[in-house]
Design brief:
72% of the residues lie in helices and 0% in strands. The protein has helices spanning 9-17, 21-32, 39-58, 65-85, 90-102, 109-129, 134-148, 152-161, 170-183, 191-203, 207-218, 227-240.
């Protein structure tokens, strides 16, 4: 194991590219417990720990709901501490928004609706500090997609919680998805952005555009993809025949 003084942003990035998410989380959490860890290094370890938690949760089977929720909450705690440590860290806001969004499947409808406003606020804060972040453009697209796609029950619940409930459209979602694509060209473009572009077009009854997006999902190389990303490919396979 590398000595504390040898652990740098660059060495952690090399490990990230190698997919060593569990190792990064272990290193970051260990170093955060070291007395005298300065603010700059603390922020570096906190947001990377938060990101590692997301990556690990993303690689868990969909059936392991307990494990995924626990890992997302673990990451969210790191992101919250990172924001408290440095309110100008765009990475802290980014991973808070991503992790909090991921917890939507594990909370009540009321909590999910209340969190939606905070998620958008954090995501917009990221773009204020780092406007060219493709992941956050995608996240805002997902936010718009989710709000446009809410059920009657969720819409009714939102009207009881807010004087003016959150509103958006599939057209607005596509604007963000397109921006994410522009900022992250192939082969780095994530399958999840392509899949949700297909879903947005599908909901707009733009069948040709939807079919083309789902087909692009099927063309992705599967090697190195997470369980969640592989799930998007299978969802695209099932949806393409409906276009």
């Amino acid at each position: 194991m590398a000595a504390a003084e040898e652990i740098t942003d660059d060495t952690l990035q090399v490990q990230y590219r190698a997919g060593q998410h569990a190792e990064i989380l272990e290193i970051c959490e260990r170093e955060l417990g070291v007395q005298g860890c300065g603010k700059e290094r603390k922020v570096m370890f906190l947001w990377r720990a938060a990101r590692s938690c997301f990556e690990l949760a993303d690689r868990m089977p969909a059936t392991d709901k307990t494990g995924k929720e626990a890992m997302l909450r673990r990451g969210l705690a790191h992101a919250e501490e990172c924001i408290a440590t440095d309110s100008d860290s765009w990475q802290a806001y980014k991973w808070w928004a991503i992790l909090r969004s991921g917890l939507g499947d594990y909370v009540s409808t009321k909590e999910k609706i209340l969190a939606a406003v905070e998620i958008k606020e954090h995501a917009l804060k990221v773009l204020e500090l780092q406007p060219d972040d493709a992941s956050t453009q995608h996240l805002l697209g997902r936010w718009c997609y989710s709000v446009a796609n809410v059920s009657w029950f969720e819409r009714k619940a939102a009207s009881l919680l807010f004087a003016t409930p959150p509103e958006s459209s599939f057209e607005e979602a596509l604007i963000y998805f397109d921006r994410a694509d522009e900022l992250c060209p192939p082969p780095l473009r994530p399958v999840r952005n392509t899949y949700y572009k297909g879903e947005a077009h599908y909901n707009l009854k733009q069948w040709e555009e939807a079919k083309a997006a789902f087909q692009r999902c099927l063309d992705f190389q599967k090697e190195g993809l997470s369980e969640t990303e592989l799930g998007y490919i299978e969802k695209a396979r099932a949806k393409i025949s409906k276009c």
